[in-house]
Specification:
This protein is an alpha+beta fold. It has four helices and nine strands. The two termini are about 35 Å apart.
């Protein structure tokens, strides 16, 4: 990954910060004529939306997206697709005591070491909030793959030393039935 973009033929560039007005993504390289299913994209965003369980951040965001360009009458035009997700629940004051401390298990130190500055209010560009933009782009990629009869199923296969057998044939309904998104319900949560 170089800078804020990834990919060559299907290029994804994310923008925005966790505590700014919005985050978003530009997808360049999607062919014209792809049917865009807004409900499908929203469902994908809902899967990663914060505040769903005790194991994720409790920040409440709807992750509602808007398409600003690249789509006309629900079909891609071949031009870059720009999607915006407005931040509605930024609470920067929650981070006041972190302004001069690095948070453990966050990118605060590495961001500061790489760029010489950091955003102590929620991590800025290094916040997990930025993944919403990547999920929106991934949903467009999934739609493109589905148009070619290609389906993708993803799940958590290991946490620490708890592992799903590699021979398991995952059931998508089971994957979505638990907050860890593990297909093996015999594993502890």
């Amino acid at each position: 990954m170089s800078g804020n973009s990834t990919g060559i033929l299907f290029k994804v560039t994310s923008f925005g910060e966790s505590h700014g007005p919005a985050i978003g993504v530009v997808v360049d390289g999607c062919p014209a004529g792809l049917e865009i299913d807004h409900e499908f994209i929203q469902r994908e965003l809902n899967r990663r939306r914060p505040g769903q369980s005790a194991i994720v951040t409790q920040r409440k965001e709807s992750d509602t997206f808007e398409i600003l360009s690249g789509v006309f009458n629900n079909k891609t035009t071949g031009a870059p697709i720009c999607m915006l997700i407005r931040n509605t629940n930024q609470r920067s004051a929650d981070y006041n005591d972190m302004a001069d401390k690095y948070r453990p298990s966050h990118a605060d130190f590495t961001y500061d070491a790489k760029y010489g500055l950091r955003d102590p209010f929620g991590g800025g560009r290094s916040s997990a909030r930025e993944t919403a933009a990547r999920v929106a782009a991934g949903a467009v990629a999934k739609l493109l793959l589905q148009s070619q009869d290609i389906r993708i199923t993803a799940y958590v296969s290991q946490v620490g030393n708890i592992m799903v057998p590699l021979t398991m044939d995952p059931d998508p309904t089971v994957i979505e039935s638990n907050p860890v998104r593990c297909p093996d319900l015999t594993k502890p949560e």
